[in-house]
Amino acid sequence: TITMAAIDEEGYIHVGTSTNGLRHTISGRVGDASIPGSAAYADNEVGAAMTTGDGDILMRFLPSLLAVEAMRAGKTPAEAVELVIQRIRKHQTFFDVAIIAVNRLGTYAVGCYGTGMAKNNGEFGYMVSSPGQPVRTEWVPC
Amino acid sequence: APLLPMVINTWNFPEANEEAWRLLNLEKGGVGQTRSAVVGGISICEKLQCDMAVGYGGNPDERGDTSLDALLMDGGTMEVGAVGDLRRIKSAIKVAQHVLEHTLHTLLVGDGADHFGIAMRFQNESLNSDESMAIWQNWTAHNCQPNFWRNVYPDPRTSCGPYKPLTTWDANATLSERIEIGPDNHD
User: Fold this and answer.
1) Cross-strand partners of B72
2) Mind giving me the DSSP string for B43-71?
3) What is the Cα–Cα distance from B165 to B151, expressed in whole angstroms?
4) Which residues of chain B make contact with A14, given a CB cutoff of 8 A?
5) How far is it, in rounded angstroms, from Cα B27 to Cα B40?
6) 3-state secondary structure B168-182
């Protein structure tokens, strides 16, 4: 899956997702990438959030909506990301998720839970572009 | 330094981010610039089959077919266009964009999503590849392990289907192991 957000200078936001899902799923299965509020959500008044992981678990919690609503309630992106992970942890012992929360001003935080999301030395990689800095890969430990 | 504009995406897919960033700056101040950036960036990943986790030819289902899910959301209008279980069109994000821009619906799935995309003049073509067929054949050769079934017979932990539901079971004992999530196998 790729999930992406673009924000312009005025704070206008679009988010998008695309995936071929998990291997060997039962035919007819739809993952979380299609579900608003699950793999992605955006509200110009607040910011946006995106997730990736095991969609059958994630879509039950609408984690991107949760993160955006947490920021609307005053939490920082880092606090919003942590809140989402803890919410799922209350109910799921084993799961994999990486979540990006970004507020309407461009401040962002990334959280990762589960070994499946790690691609490089136990870390999850994501891409960022912003003024004055080249397109770059950043990593967060899982 | 100013933080905006910005493009951010999950996984280290540089080509997608670079294309979105190029479009965002190319159309600076233009109407819908963030939309074209997201659609353009994700389209690159669909074409490149990023990590075989995006686009055609990856992660076949238990029948051996690849299907695609995609979504586009406008944070200003809160409009959403999405498709699920798309099986005959490679550009899922652009079909999702057409759902957003040319219908009053939010999510189209399955055959209906394919029919919609074809009506919107997207090419009707198989999403399977030699690689996805090889993955599927290897899976069937290994007794269809792992899979997503539980509380059915024959035992899904040792046998392929077709399965039928068990009428009684021990809920604690029959939880099958989940497929391992990884960089090339995730939603």
Assistant:
1) A16, B81
2) HHHHHHTGGGTSSTTSS--TTS---EEEE
3) 6
4) 34-35, 37-38, 72-75
5) 12
6) CCCCCCCCCCCCCCE
Is-catalytic flag, A25? no
In this predicted complex, what is the ipTM?
Answer: 0.98
Give the closest of A12, A35, A131 to B1, CB-based. Answer: A131
Q: What is the pLDDT along chain A (142 residues), one digit of tens a residue?
A: 999 999 999 999 999 999 999 999 999 999 999 999 999 999 999 999 999 999 999 999 999 999 999 999 999 999 999 999 999 999 998 899 999 999 999 999 999 999 889 888 899 999 999 998 879 999 999 9
CA gap A142, A124 in Å, rounded: 6
Let me know: does B113 contact B93? Beta carbons within 8 Å.
Answer: no
Per-residue tokens: A83: 């809140």
Report the C-alpha gap between B2 and B23 in whole angstroms: 19
Q: How far is CA A63 from CA A31, A58, B67, B74, B162, in A?
A: 14, 7, 23, 18, 34
Confirm or reject contact between B185 and chain A (CB < 8 A). yes
Residue type, A27: S
In the three-class reduction of DSSP (H, G, I as helix; E, B as strand; rest coil), residue B25 is classed as helix
- DSSP SS3 for A75: coil
Chain B contacts in chain A segment 86-115 (CB below 8 A): 94, 96, 98, 100, 102, 105-108, 114
- Coil, strand or helix: which one is B5? coil
In tens, the pLDDT along B45-93 reads: 999 999 999 999 999 999 999 999 999 999 999 999 999 999 999 999 9
